[in-house]
Write a structure and sequence with these properties.
Largest sheet: none
Shape: elongated
Strand content: under 5%
Radius of gyration: 24 Å
Number of strands: 0
Order of helices and strands: HHHHHHHH
Length: 169
């Protein structure tokens, strides 16, 4: 009977939650990782000015264009937290550089800068077989194109947010 009564109370509490009395105070949380909810709230609200969001978006695109497959997100989180920028905006804007468009464009630009000629035969097989030279071209093209795309994305984000904040209501 006691088990049935406990089960019924828990079911009712789950369906219609009501405030409960805490028997023990929760332990004090330390730093940024208090709970997932406070972590995301801080991440979304940190440096949420139009300038800060524009810089964060530009940095996300710049780092997203670099040839560092698999560690873009970790690098963006580390850099934005170190520079006190908005990590959520940087992570979202990184997705503008998803393959294949931006990496192929970066490789084309890098190849043109190195050899003054565009790649005509650019297939997956040639990319894999010539990975070493393509990585150098991708890196060089990402530095040039990443600065251009990052600056443009940052400025567009800043201008759009200034426009949205200046509108009444």
């Amino acid at each position: 009977l006691r088990m049935a009564w406990l089960h019924a109370r828990l079911i009712v509490r789950r369906i219609a939650p009501y405030p409960i009395r805490r028997l023990v105070d929760p332990p004090p949380a330390v730093g940024l990782f208090r709970s997932p909810r406070t972590f995301w709230q801080r991440m979304l609200k940190s440096n949420a000015t139009p300038t800060g969001l524009g810089v964060s978006a530009g940095l996300g695109v710049l780092l997203g264009a670099l040839p560092l497959p698999g560690i873009h997100s970790l690098l963006i989180l580390a850099v934005t937290l170190r520079l006190h920028l908005n990590p959520a905006m940087a992570l979202v804007s990184q997705n503008l550089c998803i393959p294949p468009f931006v990496p192929v464009l970066c490789i084309q630009v890098g190849h043109y800068v190195l050899y003054r000629d565009w790649l005509v035969d650019f297939t997956f097989q040639t990319w894999v077989s010539q990975a070493g030279t393509r990585l150098l071209e991708w890196g060089l093209g990402a530095l040039l194109l990443g600065l251009l795309l990052g600056g443009g994305t940052g400025y567009l984000t800043y201008a759009l947010l200034r426009l949205l904040r200046s509108r009444p209501g």
